[in-house]
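Retry 2 of 3 after timeout on previous attempt. Resubmitting structure tokens to design endpoint.
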């Protein structure tokens, strides 16, 4: 299976179109939502291509802090930053 975002992308599932209020809908299994990091009320784009329905998440993958800084090569300056005057018995 091909990997996408560290998880498997080639999955085959079956579901049915069912009546949902005044319209129709499909139920997406919890495992599939977890695989794509989707939650209730997340937006999906819907495309029809060659007789197939394609659903795509509208949000970018959530990156961890480590992933965000993985390729950072700049300088890091780490020091305390204090802008307030003492208001009690603080030791500075």
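Retry 2 succeeded. Sequence:
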């Amino acid at each position: 299976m091909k990997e996408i975002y560290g998880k498997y992308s080639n999955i085959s599932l079956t579901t049915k179109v069912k009546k949902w209020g005044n319209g129709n809908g499909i139920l997406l299994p919890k495992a599939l939502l977890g695989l794509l990091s989707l939650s209730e009320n997340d937006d999906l784009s819907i495309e029809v291509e060659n007789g197939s329905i394609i659903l795509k998440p509208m949000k970018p993958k959530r990156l961890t802090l480590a992933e965000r800084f993985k390729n950072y090569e700049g300088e890091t300056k780490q020091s305390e930053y204090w802008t307030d005057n003492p208001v009690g018995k603080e030791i500075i």
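Attempt log closed. Residues 1-6 have pLDDT under 50 and may be disordered.
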